[in-house]
Structures are given as structure tokens and as C-alpha cells.
Design brief:
The complex is a heterodimer. By secondary structure, chain A is α/β, with parallel strands linked by helices. Chain A has 10 helices and 12 strands. Classes of the chains: A alpha/beta, B alpha/beta.
């Protein structure tokens, strides 16, 4: 049986591993390459690495760091951050990264999704939707680390991404990021019930039952964990961390 | 060169080389026909579309080189993911013929929405042994592997199936016939299980 994946989601800012709360106040965690070595030993299902450095679009992706990380990974890796064109995607795939997450580059035009999917295959294109509620309480898609909100409905945007050739959709609820309060199951269901490609749920994981809910009730194919993967527990110190294989298999069997 | 990973412009041969290096296995990536001609073993990787794969191999002249190495010299070859599918007769993904080294065809996962199975088949899954083979040495029972694909191999001769995997249906996840091996999953992204498989291939 196919197992639902649990994926540490790592944030990089200026070569450092950091963790945010609601996409703000990045706190220093450690060295990203060291952390990846540990996740490798723990045999994590997959990794998502997102560069949130301020100048990521000006400077383009940090290929040196991506290469250093890829060399340590004997599991699939998805990279996002600072990507704006097809040449950068090609370069990152060649380094040995399997998947590319696109966000700000597709805010106004989803053409890069179809271009990349046609050239490299849908399986390597992940569309990342950072979602928050507007003042009317409606879910909206945002870009640029949550700073720019567009008016498109989240389901419409997800469907557009699917039709353009995305292989997976990563949905992150900004208001839950770093809160340990659990996933936004309503938001996850909205997306999973309307697209046929796998959905990775992110934002709010605080314990194993949250993960289970995202999978069994939300119908997510995979979940991303941020704080849970880098802290001992809420309010406690740094610990590069991942639930044991056995525990995760029990969740999968529920 | 011991193992040559055939570079025909599709996929991420870098991560296979990376794992082989970690295992201290001598290997290189090449698109050069004389380098490939001198290989003791070959790995045919690939992520992408079936027709693109065959066309790239034909335009570069590597198609004939591989035919000679595999059918003439009978050196061991391992096809990974699309590389495995290219070894079959043809694919529902395209109109080109494959190498036809194995009596199998490549089909598309086709499920009704009610079954709730999302395609591509992405993630970690198990393999069930159908016919024990040295390529799966020390890999029974607890092994899991990373898959990402929308098409699957269907072998016509049950004897060629080393392992099957269940995703909606049972499909061939590993086949073997003489010197020809194929796996649908990505050993280079499957932690210690993938390492063991590459070690087994190296020991052939």
C-alpha cells in the first residue's frame, strides 16, 4: 500500500536554517547541511527546502547551497525559492533535486508551470500555495512570503495549476505556520476534493494526531512538518527531529 | 569504466552517481558512445516522456550502441523508472517503439475518481517478491522504495517479474531477464534499500 508521506519542511535564510511563526520572525535553528545529514540518518520520506532570503529573486537560487544539500540526500527533495525561469529549474534538477516548488513566479502568469511540466514532466513541478484568510474570512492565495494577496479563489487557482501541468500542490496555511495548533482541515478538504493530483498539507502540525487528521479527514496525500521537525516541542529548544518509522506506519494503517 | 550512467538528456543522473560514489562504486555519467561502449555495466536512468527518451537516444546514436552492448555483449544493464519503461515493447504514453528487450508493455494508470487514487503514484511503497532474484538480495519483506510515475510496466511472462507493487492494481516494480534488469522505483532516492539494490547490481 502507498504510504502517506511526512515531510520535514526546512526554511533557509541567507544560508542558515530558520523557522518562522505565521511567516514572520525567522528564528535561527542551525546549519542546513548538518540538519539534512541528520534527516538522512533518520530516513525521512522526503524533504522540502524553501529559501526565504529577502534577495532571493534578485540573486536567483543559491546553487552552491542547493548542491551541498543535494549531495547529502538519499531521499527525494523538493526545492523552492527565488526561481523565476526554466534555465534555473533545469540547473537545479541537474544538481540532483527531484522537484521544484513554484510560487511567486506564477503569481501573474502560470505559463512557467506548463513550460516546466512539458520539458521536465509534471512529477517534478510542485505548485506552492501560501494561503490566508482576508478580512472577510475568505481564503486567498498569497505570494512573496505572504506579502501579496491576489483575489483568485484558492480552488480556482489550484485547478489552474493542475490544468497547467503541476504534479503536486503544496498548500500552506500562513495563519497556522509555527503555531503547533493543527492543520486547517477545512482548507485542505477544499483543495483535495477539487483536484486529482496529490496534495501536500502544511501549516500547524503540532503532534501526530494532527498529521493523522490531515490525512484521514483532510485527504492529504502528504503532510509537511516545520516546527515539529526542528524543535523539541512548543516553546522548547532546537532539536532536529522526525517521528519514528514505526509510529508513522501506525498512522498510515489507521 | 565499471558502471556508466547513460546521459540522454532526461532526468537526474547526478543523484545516481552521488549514491554510487557514497558506496565507493566506480561510476561515471556519459553521453559519449565510446565511453558507453567500454562500460562493464550500464544504468539507464530517466524521468520524462517515453517518446522523448527514445528520440533522444536515436538522435544521439546511443540507441544502436545500447542495442549492441545489451543484446550483443550481454553486459548487465539496469533501467530505472523511465529507463525501465524504455526497455519494454511500447508505451501508452507515446507512439515510438521501445527497445523491446523484455516481453512487456508500458501502460497508464487509469482509475475512476471514486477509487480516490491520485496519479502520479508518488511516495514510498512496498514490493512483493514474485520470483526471487539476486538483484533483490537482502531486500525482502521490510524494504520500501520511492516511486514517482504515471505509467507502469506490465510483463507478459510472469517468469520475468521479480517484484510487484500494489497501487490500485499489481504492477511490475522489478523485472529481470538474463542480463537485463529494470526497477520502477528510484533506488538512488530510497535510502539504505536503494543502496542495497545498487550494491547488488554492482556485484553481478
Amino acid at each position: 500500500m502507498l504510504q502517506n508521506r511526512v515531510i520535514p519542511c526546512l526554511l533557509i535564510q541567507d544560508n542558515k536554517l530558520v523557522k518562522t511563526v505565521k511567516f514572520k520572525n525567522p528564528k535561527y535553528i542551525g546549519d542546513p547541511v548538518n540538519a539534512i545529514k541528520i534527516y538522512n540518518e533518520k530516513e525521512v520520506d522526503e524533504l522540502i527546502v524553501v529559501d526565504i532570503s529577502k534577495k532571493r529573486y534578485e540573486n536567483g537560487p543559491n546553487f552552491n547551497l542547493i548542491k551541498q544539500m543535494a549531495d547529502e540526500c538519499f531521499m527525494p527533495v523538493c526545492y523552492g525559492g527565488g526561481i523565476s525561469n526554466i534555465d534555473q529549474i533545469q540547473k537545479i534538477l541537474k544538481i540532483g533535486i527531484e522537484k521544484i516548488a513554484l510560487n511567486t513566479a506564477i503569481m501573474l502568469d502560470t505559463q512557467l508551470i506548463s513550460q516546466a511540466a512539458n520539458k521536465f514532466g509534471s512529477q517534478c513541478i510542485v505548485v506552492a500555495l501560501d494561503i490566508k484568510k482576508n478580512w472577510l474570512g475568505k481564503y486567498k492565495v498569497t505570494f512573496n512570503s505572504g506579502d501579496q494577496m491576489i483575489n483568485t479563489d484558492i480552488v480556482d487557482f489550484a485547478k489552474t495549476a493542475e490544468n497547467a501541468g503541476a504534479g503536486e500542490i503544496l498548500i500552506n496555511n500562513i495563519d497556522r505556520d509555527g503555531t503547533w495548533e493543527g492543520f486547517d482541515i477545512e482548507m485542505i478538504r477544499k483543495i483535495t476534493s477539487n483536484v486529482s493530483i496529490p496534495v501536500i498539507a502544511a501549516g500547524g502540525a503540532g503532534n501526530l494526531s494532527h498529521i493523522k487528521d490531515a490525512i484521514t479527514i483532510g485527504k492529504a496525500s502528504a503532510v509537511a512538518i516545520g516546527s515539529m521537525a526542528v524543535y523539541q516541542s512548543k516553546g522548547m529548544g532546537v532539536l532536529i527531529n522526525f517521528p519514528k518509522t514505526k509510529v508513522l506506519e501506525e498512522i498510515n494503517n489507521l | 569504466m565499471n558502471i556508466v550512467i547513460v546521459d540522454y538528456g532526461l532526468g537526474n543522473p547526478g543523484s545516481i552517481l552521488n549514491m554510487l560514489r557514497y558506496l565507493d562504486i566506480e561510476a561515471t555519467i556519459s553521453d559519449n558512445s565510446s565511453v558507453i561502449s567500454n562500460a562493464k555495466k550500464l544504468i539507464l536512468p530517466g524521468v520524462g516522456s517515453f517518446d522523448n527518451g527514445i528520440k533522444n537516444l536515436k538522435t544521439s546514436g546511443l540507441y544502436d550502441v545500447l542495442m549492441q552492448k545489451v543484446l550483443g555483449q550481454k553486459i548487465p544493464i539496469l533501467g530505472i523508472c523511465l529507463g525501465m519503461q524504455l526497455m519494454t515493447i511500447n508505451s501508452e504514453e507515446g507512439i515510438e517503439n521501445g527497445f523491446g528487450w523484455i516481453d512487456a508493455v508500458t501502460k497508464k494508470f487509469d482509475f475512476t475518481p471514486e477509487r480516490g487514487l491520485k496519479v502520479p503514484h508518488i511516495g514510498w511503497n512496498r514490493v512483493n517478491t514474485e520470483n526471487p532474484n539476486i538483484i533483490m538480495y537482502e531486500l525482502q519483506d521490510i524494504s520500501k522504495f520511492y516511486f514517482v510515475h504515471s505509467y507502469y510496466v506490465s510483463c507478459r511472462r510472469p517468469h520475468d517479474i521479480v517484484c510487484s507493487t500494489t497501487f490500485g492494481i499489481d504492477f511490475t516494480s522489478v523485472f529481470a531477464k538474463d542480463n537485463i534488469y529494470g526497477c520502477q522505483f528510484h533506488p538512488e532516492k530510497s535510502h539504505k534499500y536503494g543502496m542495497q539494490l545498487l550494491k547488488n547490481f554492482n556485484s553481478l
